[in-house]
Amino acid sequence: MHAGDSAVTPVRPLSPDLREPPAVIGAKAHGLAVMMRLALPVPPGFVLGTDACRESLRDGRLPAGFGDALRGLESATGRVLGDAERPLLVSVRSGAAVSMPGMMTTVLDVDRTSVLVDAVRTVFGSWHSPRATTYREIHGIPHDGGTAVIVQAMVSGHRDRHSAAGVAFSRDPRSGAPQPFGEVVFGRSGDAVVSGRAGTLPLAALAERIPGAAEALAAALDRLERHYRDACQVEFTVESGRLWLLQVRPGGYTGRAAVRVAVDLAEEQLIDRDTALDRITPAAVRAARVPRLTGTAVLTRGQGASPGVASGRIAVTADRAAVMAADGPVILVRPHTSPLDMHGLAAAAGVLTVLGGPACHAAVVARSMGRPAVVGAGAVTVDEAAGRIRVGERVLPEGTVITVDGTGGEVVLGHAEATTAEDPHLTRLLEWDRVRRAPPRS
Amino acid sequence: MSVPVLHALRCMGFAEPPRIAGACGAPEAEVESQLIDLAVAGLVTRTPGGFGGWGLTGAGKREDARRVHAEVEAAGARAALTAGYQRFLVLNPELLDLCSAWHLRPGAAGDAGYDARVIGRFADLDRRAAAVCRDLSAALPRFATYRVRLGDALARAQGGEVEHLTDSMTSYHSVWFQWHEDLLCTLGIPR
C-alpha cells in the first residue's frame, strides 16, 4: 500500500467533528456524523473520501493516513485485525455524494489487513460497475464523483437472543401515518432485511423481545426527524441488547405517503407550507391518486411492483387463469413468472408472486400490461398439482377471492375496500398550492 | 440459423404464427405447416379464445428438453453456453433496472431528456449483450436470432416506437425474457 499525496483528503475517523459535505465524504458518512453529533450510537470507524476513490481508480493508491486510521479503530475497539482469539471484524461500505441504494459493493466481516485493502479497492471499483453507471445516467448523477468508503467495526445482529437487525422509518412509508414502522429479524444479519429475503417481523416484535433497544430506537427516530425536519429511515443493529445505527436517510417517501408526511410536518410546524409544497413532485401527486387498500386485515405481504388494487379468484397456473378469466376476474398466483406465464398475466386482473423484487421480469410485464402486482410474498407457497396456495397455516383453494395492492404490497382475503375518493391530505396540499399561486390581492 | 418451431414456442409461451415466425427466423407459412405436424404428434396444441394461441403440451415440453439436451451434447457446447449464461446473469439485473426506469419515468407524458438517457443506456447495454450473444451463437448458432430480434426492437424504439422497449409482445424486454428462458431451458436449469 502506498501513501497518497497530500492533495487528497486524508482518511478521517468517524466523529462528531466530521463536517465535510456529502460531496467530499459521501452522504452515508455525512449522515453518520450527523447522528454522532446528535449523540446517537454509531459503531466506530473511518472514512476514505470521494477524492480518494478518484485517485485509487487512477493509480491504485490509497490515501495518506489509512494505516493510522486503522490503528485508531483498533485502539478504540480494543481489538486487532487478524488477532487469533478475538479479531476485529470490519464492514466496508460504499457511500457516494448521492445515495445509490444497492448499486455498489459491500464487503462484510473483513478480518485481515490484506483483505481490507482489497475490499476498499473493490468498493471503489464498483463505482464503475455497469449497474451503477446506468443508475447515474438515469438519475442525472455525474460520473466523475466517485464513492467514499466507510470502514466500521462490525456489530452483530445474531450474537445472542438479545440481538437483532432491521430497518425502521419514523413514519409509516406506506401511508405516511405518524407512527414508526419497520421490519426486524432476530438471529440474522441486517443485509437479510435490506435485500428483502424472507422472514422479517414487524417492529413491534423488537419492543416485545428487547424493549430497551426499541425505546432507544423510537427516541433516535424522533431526534432525527426533528434534525432533518423530514421523515427518516434508519438501518439498525441490536447487539446484546445495545442499539447501533448504521445508516440514516431523510425523506424518500413516495406518493400518498409523501403527501401525508409533508402536510403533517407543516401542521406540526416543523416545516412551512412552501417547503411542504416544494417537496411534492407532480409524479407524487399522480401516485397519490392511485387507489390503495383501506382495510388493515392483511393476509400476507410482498413488495408492491405495479400500482393499483385488483380483486379476483386465485388461479395457480397461467393456463387456469386464461380459462377462469372467462367467468370473471382472476388473480394469478405463481412462485415466479416465465414467458410461459405471459398469457396468464394478460388474462388476469392482478398478479401475486412468491419470489422476485420490484424490478423482476414479472414486475416489468405486469406494469407493461397495467396489472396490479405484488411480488416477493415469501410466506406464500403454490401447490400447482393440488390447485391451491398456502399462506402460513391457511390453505386457499383455487377460486378463493383475494385482493392485491400493487403499491403497498398488501394481500387481503376476499373483496377488500379500496380508496377511490381524493386523499384528504392531498386535498389540503392542493388547496395550499392554489393559495400560493393566486395573485396577491391589491 | 433458423430455430426449430418446437423450441421457439417453448421459450415464448402461447403465440400465434406471425410472432413464432419472427422468433424462428422462418416464413410464416412454413411455421404454420410445422405447427400442424407437431400438433398431430401431440407436442403442441392450439387453445382458442382471447388469451389462447399455440403452445406446448406436457409431452411437447419433455420432447423439447430431450432434443435440446441431445443438441447441446452433440455440439459439445455445454461449457461455452454455461460461461455465456454467467455473463448474461451479470447483464440481467441491469436490463431489469432499465425497464423499471422506463416504466417509472417521472414525466409520463414525456421528458425528452430522461427518455433519451434511458434509451441511450439500452443501446449501451445492447452493445455488451451483443458480445455475449455472439459467443453463445458460436457455441450454438440458433442463439443468433436473439441478436437480430433485440437489435430490431432497439432500432424501432430509437426510431420513436418506444413501446418496443418494454411494452409490446416483441419488445426488447419480451425478447430478453425469452432469451433468459432459452438459456435456462437449454442448460436444463430450473427457474
Characterization of this structure:
The complex is a heterodimer of chains A (442) and B (191). Chain A is α+β, with helices and mostly antiparallel strands. Helix content of chain A is 34%, strand content 23%. Chain A folds into four domains: 12-153, Dna Ligase, domain 1 (2-Layer Sandwich), CATH 3.30.1490; 164-250, 2-Layer Sandwich (D-amino Acid Aminotransferase, Chain A, domain 1), CATH 3.30.470.20; 255-289 and 422-437, no CATH class; 300-413, Phosphohistidine domain (Glucose Oxidase, domain 1, 3-Layer(bba) Sandwich). In chain A, the strands form four sheets. In chain A, strands 11-21-20-13-14-15-16-12 form an eight-stranded mixed sheet. In chain A, helix 9 (255-267) packs antiparallel against helix 10, helix 9 (255-267) packs across helix 15 and helix 10 packs across helix 15. Chain B folds into two domains: 5-68, Winged helix-like DNA-binding domain superfamily/Winged helix DNA-binding domain (Arc Repressor Mutant, subunit A, Orthogonal Bundle); 76-187. Helices cover 71% and strands 4% of the residues of chain B. Chain B is built from nine helices and two strands. In chain B, strand 1 and strand 2 (53-56) form a beta hairpin. In chain B, helix 5 runs antiparallel to helix 6 (112-139). Chain B is globular. The model of chain B has no long low-confidence stretch (mean pLDDT 92).
